[in-house]
Amino acid sequence: MIVTASSVQCLQAKTGLPLLNQISGWIVLSVSSLLPFISRVEHSTPMSKILMYFLGFGPCFVILSISVEGMFYVAYSMTLLCWIEVESSLRNAQPSKPENAQVYRFQADDLRIVLFFLFFVQVGFFGTGNVASVSSFYLSPVYRLIPIFNPFYMSALLLFKIIAPYIILSVVFATLTYQLHLPRFSLFLNALMITDGMTVMFFFNVTDTGSWLEIGQTISFFVVASLLLAWSGGRSRTTIRASLTVRDVYANGKAVIIRDLNNPNLSVAYSSHVQNTTVARISPSGYYCASADAVGTVGVWDTVGEDQTLKGEYKVISGRMYIVFFTPLPFEIIGHSKAINAVSIRHQRPFRAATAADDNLIVFHQGAPYKYDKIIKTHTKFVQDIRYAPSGEHFASVGSDAKIFIYDGKTGETSSEFTDSPHKGTFMACSWSADSKSIVTSSADCTVKLWDVESRKSVTTWTVGSGVTNQQVGNTWSAENGIVSLSLGGDLNVFDLRVGDKSTRTFTAPQKAITAISPSSARTFLAGSADGRVLSYSIASGESTSLKGEGHSNFVTALATSSADGKVFSVGFDDRVREITSDGKEFTPASFSTGSQPKGIAVAEDSSVFVAEVNTAEVIRSNKKVFEITPKSTPTAVAATGKLVAVGGEQKVVLYEWDGKNLKEGGVSERNKGVISALDFSPDGKYLASGDSSGRISLFNVAEKKLVTSRWSFHSARVNSLSWTADSKHCASGSLDTHVYIWSVEKPMKDIALKNVGPGGVSGVLWIESGDGKTGKLVSAGADACVRVWEIKFRV
């Protein structure tokens, strides 16, 4: 501002523009305008990124504005920020619907946002602060940088001043899409549709008759609408590229997961495969994903919509598939005698393809159409992976012989071998950076290495623990400075090129079916799985972490939380009762060996632990058995509240009173039609809900010892889990039939149904938010090893 003020005074005094002022002005304008694009600063919030761009283009309006003209830029930016707040408030004020919170449903109100976007495009172009100098040919501000008249450079500066607000608008529009959790491309596609219609309309209104003013107006309308169309289309393409850098896709069980690395709550699960999935890949456009399973079935499905609609299913082979990829032309791979591990295609002309297999060979194909060209014998053991660089100039191969080779992308000739500090174990995977200058490799020696292609040197090495579970078996680039590597144990390790000693984030998730779920604190809940692991989930971030300490060796049967001290107790098929700390982070050393296989667990108000076993029910306190009872029927479920304990068996529930030393029978209910599979007391202790193997749920009034209703019977298979809201007015149930129902105590015949929400069966439901009585958040988990969060609006 000081330099600009000095330049204005010199120009007004007609003493000429000082050379130092001219150089300083150009330096400030160039550096500030380029800094937002080249900066590698990680922004914690979208608003911080908007602020960076606002400050970056601020000097442009300080230097190239006259009088208060520069205030247009400030007012324009503040209005855009207010627009974000208004739209966010309107969206939050809308009533919630019973839908999956991981995927946002597109709404008609988004058309309003698109119209405002087009309005701000017009304001940015026709605003006083932008084109007053152009329309009046007033060039005084430009002389502050170019003292000699030059039409080309002067017009370039004025056009740059017009474009600057559009850059702020683009960042704000992307932030708005992120803040509202809208589907990718939805706003841009609607803007494209509207501007396309405007362009067609103005095209037919163009006239060649009348006055020159009328002809010029019709042509200008058409040109402006065409520019809006080009702007909308350009912004759509930019967003596609940006969105793909923060999402990774992987297969787990019968599901395919697309994980959002910035916000795990926005991850997507596709669960339509009948057999275990083996591989998945997102198309270059980002609109589709192809996934394959263990019997050779390939499905292509939509990644943008809410329902992941299946576009096509193909039976390719009769065995396990290892690779899927997208190519513009079909071709057949020949030349291998063993299983093929990797395929990579050169997308530039001339087209080429390379394949790697367990026969230690690389087969090079020329195309298109693709035909066998030659065999490359550089590796002495299995070739695990092969990848073409984005530039197409080279491709790389890695193998079990702990070697990495670089080849010419057009001819397939071997260019070099990397011998500097190689991995000490099998190379499992490799990936190129976007600029084709670096390669990242993952190895069975539990390390990830970054290589510089030009110098063939190892730049950075990250070590990920030790042991078999930390062997690195896959990797990909997630952003300009981000690398994701997959551990054999299922963890996704995220590395930052600027942090050279350890991973910046680790994403942990269940690999086997989730079998039990229980609250840990107001901010977390725990989930046990069929492989014996227990994970802690953050309600706010959606991230999960494995508990430390010695846990179960296999199937976790049940979890129960103590209302007294917040500790969580677990039982498993290893016939052990284990204790978890109140913060839900680790197992304590304490454990108790049960007399037989446990079926369920509950905790009373005095922290006594009740375990339903095959033949008996044991009571444990301070890691010691204090009481044991042998019911007439085999115990299958147990629940406790205050001093009351309910034990379920064959078609009946027995109520006991616990005095700290003995269990005294207090009543029997025999209204269920099958084996009791789930029990849960309401938080106020007034009701007891019991679910059985036939899918029926019975509700009892504990104090009056009478049946309230037995009409909660819409499940068609075993009820696995029950959970009450905090106000004891609603109960949720999860069943083997894949459905979740929310039942009302006040209106027993009214229910909210969530159909087919747990492929393979729902094994656990838990309310994590139900404070206002009108809305709530429900967690469900099951056989597909996925945890889903649902926003529920109660029928009041």
From TrEMBL:
Coiled-coil region list: none
InterPro entries for this protein: Apc4-like_WD40_dom, GPI_EtnP_transferase_1_C, WD40/YVTN_repeat-like_dom_sf, WD40_PAC1, WD40_repeat_CS, WD40_repeat_dom_sf, WD40_rpt
Keyword Ribosomal protein recorded: no
Transmembrane segments: 19-38, 50-67, 111-132, 152-175, 187-206, 212-231
Record GO terms (molecular function): actin filament binding; transferase activity
UniProt keyword terms in alphabetical order: Membrane, Repeat, Transmembrane, Transmembrane helix, WD repeat
One GO cellular component term noted in the UniProt record for this chain: endoplasmic reticulum membrane
BP term (GO), one: actin filament depolymerization
WD repeat placement: 376-417, 420-461, 669-710, 712-746
SUPFAM superfamilies according to UniProt: WD40 repeat-like (SSF50978)
Residues annotated as domain GPI ethanolamine phosphate transferase 1 C-terminal: 1-211
Domain of life of the source: Eukaryota
Protein's UniProt keywords contain tRNA-binding: no
SMART domains assigned to the protein according to its UniProt record, in alphabetical order: WD40 (SM00320)
Domain Anaphase-promoting complex subunit 4-like WD40: 651-726
PANTHER family attached to this UniProt entry: WD REPEAT-CONTAINING PROTEIN 1 (PTHR19856:SF0), WD-REPEATCONTAINING PROTEIN WDR1 (PTHR19856)
Protein name per the record: WD40 repeat-like protein
Annotated source species: Armillaria gallica (Bulbous honey fungus)
Lineage: Eukaryota, Fungi, Dikarya, Basidiomycota, Agaricomycotina
